[in-house]
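Hey,
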Amino acid sequence: MPLKLQVGTSQKIGQPDYGSLGASCHVELELDASLIQHDLETFHRHVKNAYVACRQAVQDELARGAEVSPPSGNGHPGGNGNGHANGHRNGAHSNGNGNGRDGSGPRKATSSQVRAIHAIANRQGVRLTEELEARFGVSSPEDLSIRQASECIDELKAEPATTGGRR
């Protein structure tokens, strides 16, 4: 009776503008079941080789994805802002264009970006609604595009904590 060996690995790396790039590899091999009982060294070699092959495939895919990720518009190569860029989505590989558009205009700020904007604004003592209206013409971080949210975060992080001037 054959022995089924399933091996897999995945990795995710951060990208500029709060994006990320992910890849995964999973393989299934059939081995002679007697390896477990009679030749453990050969069994371990098969396991090790499968992991090495998967790790290399993941590294190659991440390198390829980093090469084809388009610039995000601010000088950084980047993700599409939804947490993935040319990597895996729900366990399957995807080679999306990573531009963050679905034909209906710019994508909205991610929930991570919205949380970051609130946290930084609170820490800096910035009246967020007034700042967003003045800078972007919106009243809430949820109304920002991904790019605008990224700009907002960068600007908020660059400002020193106020002593009441913007509160």
